[in-house]
Specification:
Pdz3 Domain, 286 residues, alpha+beta, Thrombin, subunit H, elongated
Amino acid sequence: MRGQGSGFITDNSGIILTNAHVVSGADKVTVTLKDGRQFEGEVKGSDPVTDLAVVKIEPQGADLPIASLGNSGEVQVGDWAIAVGNPLGLNNTVTLGIISTLDRSSAQVGIPDKRVDFLQTDAAINPGNSGGPLLNDRGEVIGINTAIRANATGIGFAIPINKAKALKDTLAAGKEVPHPYVGIQMITLNPELAQQYNQNPNSPFFVPEEEGVLVVGVLPDTPAASSGIRRGDVILKVAGQRITSAEQLQSIVEKSGVGATLRFEIKRGDNTLSLNVRTAQLESIS
C-alpha cells in the first residue's frame, strides 16, 4: 500500500516533522525534496493522539532546506496563513489565507480521539497537505497542516508548532508521549441545560441543576470505572478547583501527569461524594 503526504526538515541532522497518520503503517519512507533529491527515511517516533511524528533522514553532509520554526503563541486571529504541501499529489503547492480561530479543540473539530487545540485557517488544505507547514508572513512555521472537514468548505486545521516543538525530542528519541486520562465521556453542564434535560421524558436519569461537567458515559476498565464514577454524575471540583467546563477538566487531567491521584467532588442525585481517581496512560489509537 502506498501513500503520500508532506513534511518539513527542522535541522541539519535530518529531523523531519509530519503527521502520525501520514506515516502510519509505513514499513518504508522515501523523502523527496523539492530539487528532486531522495532520501530513505526512518520513523523515529509517532503519536496518534496528537497526530505528530518524527522522521529521520541521513543527510551525509548534504545541504538541507531547513524550515524556520516560529512561535504559535504569538499568532493572532487575522494573521496571514500560508499552507505548503502536496495536495492531491500536486507537488509544491502554496495556498494563502488567514488565521480564523485559535485553540479550536479536537472535540469541536469532530475528532475526539485526538488531543490538540488547533489553529483554524481558511487557507486551502486538501488531502496530501497533511504534515506540511503552515507559515506566517515571515516564512516561519506556525503550524502543521493536519485536518480538513469533509462537510465544510474553506476550513482547515493545523497543529500549533509550539505543541510540535514540545514533543519533537521525545518522538525523535522513540519514547512514548504521556497522555493521562480517566476514561469518561462528558459535556459541560449548567442549570439551564440540566432543566431542559430533566424536562425531557426520555432522559435516562435525573441531572442535578448544577454548573459543572456531566458524565454521559464511563468507559469500562478505566480509572473512572475503577474509582466508582457513574453515568449521570456531575463533577463539581477536581483537585480543589471548581469545574465549569469539559475543556477545563480535560486540561487539569492532562497537566496532572500519568499516575497522579486526583480528588473528584461529585454530585450524584442529592448527595455529594468525594472520589479519588488515579490517572493512567491513554492507549494510542492508530
